[in-house]
C-alpha cells in the first residue's frame, strides 16, 4: 500500500548546491514569474528583481501615447513579458521559456475573473529566510498544518474543507468548495503565489539563492483600504507569513541535520505538494538526460576530430618521408 502512495523529494534536494544548479537550468531559466499588478508601476518608479541569478529592472514607460511596463536585464536587453487582460504582469528571464499560454494553459481564464487594477499598491517587504525554496512551497501547497500553525486564518477558512486543484504549472486553492468564488488563491510554479480575498491582495515570491539553505522572501500588498483599515489587514497577513516562516526554518534545520530523509505524502490533503515536486523532478531528470546526451555527443565529436588529426599527422609524416628519400 505504501509503495503506491506519493513520496516527497529526498532531503538532499533541499541541501545540495549541485542539485540547486540543476534546478536553475531545468526549472528557473525556463519559467514565467509574476511581478504583480501594473498599478505597482504606475508612478514610473523602477523596481529591481532577481531570478535564477538574473537581475531584472521593471519600469513603466510611455510609448506612442500609451504606458507600458518594460522589463530589462542589467545589461539592457529587453526580456519577454506578458500583461493579462485584467492587469497582471509576468516576465521571463531567458529565451528558454516557452510562451505564456504554453507555460500556464488555462490560467488567463481564471485571472479574467478579477480586475487586479482595482486594489492600489500599498507596501512591499523582503528579507532572507534560512530554508530552501521548496520548504516554503511545501507549506503553501497544503493546509494540513493550518489548524495548528494558523489559528486566525483557520477561523476564516476551515482547513477541513480546504482543497487544492492542480493544473499545468499552477494550482488553485479552494478554501471552501461550497463557495468557489470566495477569494482567489493561486500557486504559480515554481516560486510565485497570488492571494486575493476581501478588499486585499498579496503576492509573494520565494527566490532561491546559490546557497540551497537560503531564500529571499519578497511580498507585495495591495488593498482598497488605506490607513488604519489597511494596517489591520497587513497585521493579519503578516502574522500568517511569520507563522509559516518560523515553521520553514525549523523544518530546514531538521533536513540539514539528517533528522528527516524522505516521507509519504497524504494522497488527498497533499496533492499540491505531490504535483509540484513531481514537476521539479520531471524537469530536472529531463535536463540531466539532455545534458548527458550533449556531453556524450561532444565527446564523440572530440574523439573523431582527434582521430582525424592523428590521420592527417601520419599522412603528413609519410609524405615528408617520400619527399626526403
Automatic annotation (TrEMBL):
Residues annotated as transmembrane: none
Domain Aromatic-ring-hydroxylating dioxygenase alpha subunit C-terminal residues, every copy: 124-283
Main enzyme class: oxidoreductase
Listed InterPro entries: Rieske_2Fe-2S_sf, Ring_hydroxy_dOase_asu_C_dom, Rng_hydr_dOase-A
UniProt-recorded Gene Ontology molecular function terms: 2 iron, 2 sulfur cluster binding; choline monooxygenase activity; iron ion binding
Entry similarity comment: Belongs to the choline monooxygenase family.
Pfam families according to UniProt: Ring_hydroxyl_A
UniProt xrefs under SUPFAM superfamilies: Bet v1-like, ISP domain
Documented EC number(s): 1.14.15.7
Summary of the function given for this chain in its UniProt record: Catalyzes the first step of the osmoprotectant glycine betaine synthesis.
Reactions catalysed, as given in the entry: choline + 2 reduced [2Fe-2S]-[ferredoxin] + O2 + 2 H(+) = betaine aldehyde hydrate + 2 oxidized [2Fe-2S]-[ferredoxin] + H2O
CDD domains, per the entry: RHO_alpha_C
Identification of the protein by name: Choline monooxygenase, chloroplastic
Pathway(s) served: Amine and polyamine biosynthesis; betaine biosynthesis via choline pathway; betaine aldehyde from choline (monooxygenase route): step 1/1
